Amino acid sequence: MNPQALSRRETLRLLGLTTAATVLRSGSPAGAAASGEVKVGLAAEPNTFDPHLTVGRNSQIFIANVYDGLTARDAPGNLVPSLAESWKRLNATTWQFTLRRGVKFHNGDDFNADAVKFTLDRATNPETKATISSELSTIAATEIVDPFTVNVTTKTPDFLLPVRLGELFGLMLSPKHTSAMGKEAIATKPNGTGPFKLVTWAKNERLVLEANENYWRGAPKVKTLVVRPILEDAARIAALQTGEVDLIAPVPHVRIAELSRNDKLAIKTIAAPRIFHVTIDVRKPPFDNVKVRQALNHAVDVNAIVKTLYFGHGTRLATVVDKGALGYDPGVQPYAYDPSKAKALLAEAGFPNGFETEFDSFTGSIADHSKPAEAIVGYLQKVGIKAKLNVFEFSAFGPRRVQNTTSPLFIYSIGDAYLEPSWVIRWLTQGGLGMHYKNPKLDEMLTKIEATDDPKKRAPMYSDVQKLIKDEAPFIFLYQADAAFGMSARVDYTPRPDETQWLYPLRLKG
Amino acid sequence: MRAYVAGRLATAVLVILGVSVVSFFLTFLTGDPAEIMLPPGATAAQIEKFRAEWGFADPLPVQYWRFLTRAVHGDFGVSLRHGQSSLPLIVARLPATLQLTVTAMLLAIVLAVPLGVLAATHRGGPIDLAAMSVALVGQSVPNFWLAIMMILLFAVSWGLLPTSGRGGVAHVVMPAAAIAINLMALLTRLVRSTMIEMLSEDYVRTARAKGLRELFVTGRHALPNALIPLVTVVGLQFGYILGGAVVIETIFTWPGVGLFTIQAILNRDYPVVQAAVVVLATAVVLINLAVDLLYVWLDPRIRVT
Amino acid sequence: MAQALARRSPLASAGALIVGLVIVAALAAPLLATTDPIEQDLSAALQPPFWRTDGSLHHPLGTDHLGRDVYSRLVYGAQISLTISVLAACLGAAVGVAAGLVAGYRGGRVDAVIMRIADLNLAFPLILLALAVVALLGANLRNLVIVMAITTWMIYARVVRGLSLGLREREFVQAARALGARDARIIVRHVLPNVVAPVMVIWTLEVARIILMESALSFLGLGVPPPTPTWGRMLAEGRDYLTVAGWIAIFPGLAILVTVLGINFLGDGLRDLLDPRLRRQT
Fold first, then answer.
1. B264: chain C residues, CB-CB within 8 Å
2. Whole-model pTM above 0.90?
């Protein structure tokens, strides 16, 4: 499309009818109407537009363009109001949300307390068999106080409830529409309050989204989004290079340098909150000895792995707290790469000649784990730890975790969707799924943190937690990788720190 | 004859049922759909609860019976991942697969016949070597490398073709060519041996001495015999491609059945896996039946009892 | 025999030479390789081959993403890739030809059962089969050979059956039976020679397909367990780096290409050699 023609058209519209209509519309800020078309190439498309049946991060981060949650995140990652204007904790197990007025669903239905109750009841109803039920399992009941106020009670004190009801797991449905359409239809005909409406969807071919002109934050700048799933990295990049698409995600790290040299393209990266780590089974000797665990950490040159496998597009992590999470303490230094110290520690622990063990990794899944696993095993080899590498196909690996039959060492990653270390650490110390490290002192520290509502007060409390985890070394601490987006000179887009592919800020340049 | 066909159709149902049962059991024995469907932050207890909700915790024969009683009415269940009825999801992909498969087969035949004839008529010489090398190179080149190189050359460097996706002629050329080039070696080989056999038959030699027309008249006997392996193999390859052009479908994001099936298997999305294997099994069985009937037509001495 | 081969078919001699070289490379891998094929050195990762500016003779064909020497991996890879592919191809051929002969010659219910099993196998997705074998029996070389053999026997069975179907009714077979010859003898003396030629053709092509299938299985984590180098695994690993460090995938690709060419020429030559004798028999 000719950018010149676009702006002419845009100007005509501004001078024409749209201006008057925008000013008269209540509740929404006046601004230019949406125009133009942007083509997007993604690695995968959502499996469904039913927010309770999404499978995989790729789906959840995309359908947030069609729906809204009660809360959201801004560009730097802070929790901000969305469909809820404010919220407060009434007591340990009750949160009260005050809802935004004047918001309508795409089909005209009103958003109010009924919608919230309907949505949360549906998500927690066993008959729905919601795939996100695990994330909302703390919810006990939802009570309507008045048309724009709801109380949500939880089974146990849950300080994360406002985050849960955000863009990943708290997307709001219209009661009337959802009940009328039925479960199967909602998968392909969503009705949300979000910035875009789904116009057409040819599975595995293309998705067309159109701007919601009445969006309560103001209409998006771009009128039409054509989203194509392009599975193969090389083909996706080729599509960007030929101009077939204007924005792609993800861009493999190995291609970033080459594409950055192309001045018709721009590559933007942002640290993705996915924490890579190697879980150590602390119950099985010799891993019950903290010296051995520390030796493992000294043995692996994590910086080299980030440099070589991720081409520098990653961040070394000292513990299992990601850079963008609340309370991340850069003062806690990662273990230094020191193979001789590793050997010395092993000797002190009684293994001067190392020992044999097994290491699990897998193929498939949202990120590559098998390459870093091979690199890590190579480093362990150099200090005398002969680890037999087992590779599984991802779905075959799952049962091993569930049945706790994983090897003493296995690589994994967890996406910190909540940007809250306590959530990650609780999951990592759950005593199941192959993770068996437990520390009562750590639990105590976390419980105190979770009872503190004010994030500003919580943040500094995490420093001691990180120091403790580092010293205990129940994991081989690794890194988080960057997410990379590629775009043509035609568009401007700033990625968000929580992996969401939030396309509302997308705009055409010139 | 009618009895034969009826018998074959009856055993076809048994074959399809067999494929269905085995794949159902293997889907569950090799992995767990529940664990894959939940977000990564789910705990072990939550996974168990989810399994119970979806009925995955029941014994496999019970689950299969549940599935079968609905399947005979045409309802293969709702896809675990896509939330839609699985059989229509698979059937919706058949046109794309057929478009690609048929184009690829035609391209392969168009390339293989001249190469094979050339090789046969210059048998043993350098032209034979060259033609066979071309065909063999096509088969031994990794198809993902070929596909990506084609995209880089024809789409990015020369801007002649679109990079990926489904569409008309311009979109189907590269994926079909990638499949055809891989397939070509086998067909070239077969054409070559067919021609060689034909050309070396005694009666052909006499016919040639008498004049070319005799060749065509008497060729009626040699050709069908030599065609039997050809027909068999083309039929088999059709079946292979229908289910197996996964790499090409992935690289070009061609929305075919093969790719969809592989994803369903990796996701243990058993309703889709079932729909896919049943459709594929039906196709294979019908193609093989057609091939067997073709044998009878080609060589009347073959009796099918 | 070898002299006869060389005289009659330059094709076969070329093939034999290539195959011979590959086998020697495979057997002498420890002598020919310059470094340990699984030793990593991340600081030397993605080094180009020696003729490029950043390359060196220390790593003549460059290094892969973990700094491992491509040349040494290629040489060691010959051992494993060849062994499993040829074993799988032979196993599949043996089972397939036997099944096809029995089915085609005997006909009737035996034929029906064997062919329906072949149908079942054909219709069954390879991936599911490979997943099952790996998950239930473990990922090792023996199981990989079995999986690959299972994907190949059907084509022999169907072709051989087709060829033997008509033969039972032929005059010379009927005559032999009238003279009291047993079925097995008839099959071996009269039917088998007719199928050698097409079987050989199919075998040589199937070896190529199997070598490449190993790559697809490695890609999914179902192939030979790492860090063992095989050509298929090197191809799979090189796929992500195709546009940036093409040498990782190109050299194993070339190795496969040359090996497949060699096997095919050899097979063709052998078939041509055996062919005239067959002609005389029928």
1. none
2. no
